Each structure stands twice: as C-alpha cells, then as structure tokens.
C-alpha cells in the first residue's frame, strides 16, 4: 500500500491546529479583549535551553489562520538552537499575538522535545552501524507529527500504523493457534519478505529464520542473546532490538552489530523543551 506520509502529516497539522485554537480560544479570548483593537506589536519566541528545533509548519499554519499576523523565521526544523536563541519574530495585532501564544508554544515544546531526545540517542551511537527507530507508542492524535519530529532528530520511523506494515506479536500467535501456524499462513501468502515477526527467544528466532522471514524484532533480548541472534541470522536479515532501551544501554547494544533499535520513550515519555514569547515592541495602528 502506497502511503503518502507528507499528505498524512499535512492533514494532521491542519486538523490539530484547528482543534488547538478552538479548545483554547473557544468563543473568544476574554483576557486579550482588554487590549485596544488597533494595538500592534512585535513578539519574539525564545528557546530557553539547548535543543533540536522542530515545529515550523505548525506555527506557519497558526499564523496563516490569523487576520493580521506575519512571521519571520530565524531557524528551520533540524537546527541546533542554543539557550536564549530567538527562533522567530511575529508582527501584527497584539490581541491576535496573545491569543495564539500558548498554542504556538505547546506545539513547538512537544515536537522539539521529541526531536531533541531522538538526536541524543542518534549521537550516542553515531560511530556504529546501528540506527535509531521509533514505535507506535505515540500520543493519540499527533502520531504523524511525532514521527516527523523523530525524523528531524535523525531517527527513522518503524511503521506509521497498522495500515502500512504487518508486525506479528505474541497475541497474534495465540490468536492463530501457534507460532508456526501463523508462519505457515504467512509463507502460503508469500509475505515473508514484507512483514515483521517479533520473537521472544532464540528458539523462535531459529524457526522464523527457517521460514525465511526477512524482518525480525528481538523483544527484550539480553546483549548476549542479541549477539547470538546476529550470528544466527544471514546477511539479508533485518534485526530490530526493542525493550527498555535507555541512553545508558543503547551504545553497548549498537556496538553488537548492524541493528535497528526501536525506542518507545522517544514519543511516549515527553520532556518538553522550554520556550517563551515576549512582546518587545508595541504601537497603535493609525486611524
């Protein structure tokens, strides 16, 4: 199935921006109504810690939906930004600027957090042959946004959802009877090269290799088991490691061989990056 990630992402950005503005502003911004209608301002957004920036398209969409606002960028997605750096300048109605402030910051603090964490893992293993991947453990409603942020941070996308690749796990084996029963069904449909099988031990790995499964996920394998798995597999087998991988453990795993290392915490455990918006210049529109 040919899935356009770009289209999925664009649709999600548009949907989420509309939802975010509606849930925050509702029928009107009661606080900003105390500001004169003809008041104009220049506001700047600053990053308050070192980070890998992500979220430009989300702010562009928010600004586009306002009547008077214009944005001037100082960074692009993927840029390393230092603490105190100004990422953009927004000009226009003071009321509009203040009404969108929190929504703007919410998007970039979350996406930049994901990109930054991903980049930390990527940098740790950069001298190895292994690669960092995400999982489906995402925040509901912003999966494609988070997966985009992972790519901005230098990682890869494991799969977008249930619709673009089949990954068979323990519950699928039980639902089909046995591990080998499912593998026989997969082989009968000639799908061993286009699906992924999760194995929980070396015996299951041996069976999966016997059926010529190309893409195999090693679930919660110890480092010694991963090494044995690498020795058992042929050069065309894709081996992916998953299960409680941390920044302390990832390098030892990555050094074992050419592996895909999928990490749920990239998108599941969000540590937002601190941003702030400050109005630096204010004047009135001439009448």
UniProtKB/TrEMBL annotation:
Its EC number is 2.4.2.19. Hexamer formed by 3 homodimers. GO terms for biological process: NAD+ biosynthetic process; quinolinate catabolic process. It is an enzyme of class 2 (transferase). The lineage of its organism: Bacteria, Pseudomonadati, Pseudomonadota, Betaproteobacteria, Nitrosomonadales. Residues 115-277 form the Quinolinate phosphoribosyl transferase C-terminal domain. Belongs to the NadC/ModD family. One of its GO terms (cellular component) is cytoplasm. It comes from beta proteobacterium KB13. Involved in the catabolism of quinolinic acid (QA). Keywords: Glycosyltransferase, Pyridine nucleotide biosynthesis, Transferase. This is Probable nicotinate-nucleotide pyrophosphorylase [carboxylating]. GO terms for molecular function: nicotinate-nucleotide diphosphorylase (carboxylating) activity. Residues 29-111 form the Quinolinate phosphoribosyl transferase N-terminal domain. Pathway: Cofactor biosynthesis; NAD(+) biosynthesis; nicotinate D-ribonucleotide from quinolinate: step 1/1. Gene3D superfamilies: Aldolase class I, Quinolinate phosphoribosyl transferase, N-terminal domain.
